[in-house]
């Protein structure tokens, strides 16, 4: 498994999360991609669903999100219009801190992901409209850090990468 992190500044439309990096766990569930949703849930990333990724920029201001690729592959743009394009495939997990913009640029016909949230938090969907921004920025500041890594549980890279914000 390879792990990469990406830190994005506010781009004026997508607030992103300049304090917490997005994390790409490439190949985290390579041996059992269809079991990824259950593993996220066991690691207390719940309120899960299975579907795709919207083909427009959006973010969640009130929850962090883990996206586990169950089938297929996709090109995702994270961090807003000038962000980073990632190629993801079955077995990969992408963890997006609250506020991180993301959208699907293209995918295989069979692409599907499981989305999940720490402690089963309810999530909203924001698109970067100017009127939503003041509340969204406040919401992002209030989102608690997760107690568990979605892939590794009680110990894992997320807890290290996001630790500087834990105090």
Provide a concise account of the structure shown.
By secondary structure, the chain is of the alpha+beta class.
How would you characterize this protein structure?
This protein is an alpha+beta fold and about 170 residues long. Helices cover about 15% and strands about 30% of the residues. The chain has helices at about 35-40, 135-140, 155-160; strands spanning about 1-5, 20-25, 45-50, 65-70, 75-80, 85-90, 95, 100-105, 110-120. A hairpin with a 5-residue loop joins strand 5 (about 75-80) and strand 6. The radius of gyration is 14 Å and the shape is globular.
Give the N-to-C terminal Cα separation: 29 Å
Tell me roughly what share of residues is in helical segments.
10-25%
Please give the count of helices: 3
Q: What radius of gyration results from the CA coordinates?
A: 14 Å
Our estimate of the beta-strand percent is 25-35%
Biggest sheet statistics: 6 strands, antiparallel
Shape: globular
Order of SSEs: EEHEEEEEEEHH
Q: Averaging pLDDT over every residue, what do you get?
A: 96
For the secondary structure, the number of strands is 9
Classify the oligomer: single chain
Placed side by side, the strands forming the largest sheet appear as 1-2-7-4-9-3
Which regions have little confidence, pLDDT < 50, spanning 5+ residues? none
Alpha-beta classification:
alpha+beta
């Amino acid at each position: 498994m390879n792990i990469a992190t990406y830190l994005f500044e506010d781009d004026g439309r997508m607030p992103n999360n300049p304090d917490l990096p997005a994390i790409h766990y490439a190949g985290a569930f390579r041996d059992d991609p269809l079991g990824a949703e259950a593993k996220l849930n066991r690691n207390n990333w719940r309120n899960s669903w299975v579907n795709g990724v919207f083909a427009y920029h959006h973010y969640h201001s009130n929850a962090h999100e883990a996206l586990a690729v169950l089938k297929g592959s996709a090109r995702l743009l994270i961090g807003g219009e000038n962000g980073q394009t990632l190629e993801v495939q079955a077995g990969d997990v992408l963890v997006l801190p609250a506020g991180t913009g993301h959208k699907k640029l293209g995918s295989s016909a069979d692409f599907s992901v499981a989305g999940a949230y720490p402690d089963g938090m309810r999530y909203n969907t924001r698109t970067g409209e100017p009127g939503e921004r003041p509340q969204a920025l406040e919401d992002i500041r209030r989102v608690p850090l997760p107690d568990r890594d979605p892939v590794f549980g009680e110990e894992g890279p997320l807890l290290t990468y996001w630790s500087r914000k834990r105090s």
